[in-house]
Write a structure and sequence with these properties.
By secondary structure, this protein is mainly alpha-helical. It has four helices and no strands. The termini are far apart.
């Protein structure tokens, strides 16, 4: 058997079962779940860096939203805060790099 020890999407066990693939899973406790979410975010970011695509970006968003739900963050409130911060401080579209200050 191939070892993975990583967080997978909820329907993957059903998909594996349908393909008659033997597998072993367990349900993570809260600490393990959060650790695996952060690991998954890094994994998805690396995949996006290698292959910037809508699919890879969607994977990153899915993980970020799961992290937000874990911390009981209201996603509508997050979107509003994002807009407020962009309106007041701008975004990152101008590619400005701060080199130093006094």
């Amino acid at each position: 058997m191939i070892k993975y020890d990583k967080l997978i999407r909820d329907k993957i066990p059903e998909i594996l079962k349908g393909k008659k693939v033997k597998y072993k899973v367990h349900t993570a406790n809260k600490k393990e779940y959060l650790d695996k979410l952060y690991n998954k975010l890094i994994e998805e970011l690396e995949e996006f860096k290698t292959n910037p695509s809508v699919e890879e970006f969607a994977d990153m968003l899915e993980v970020l939203e799961s992290i937000g739900r874990f911390h009981n963050l209201d996603l509508q409130e997050v979107k509003l805060k994002k807009k407020i911060k962009k309106d007041s401080n701008g975004g990152f579209d101008k590619r400005i790099i701060l080199e130093e200050t006094d």
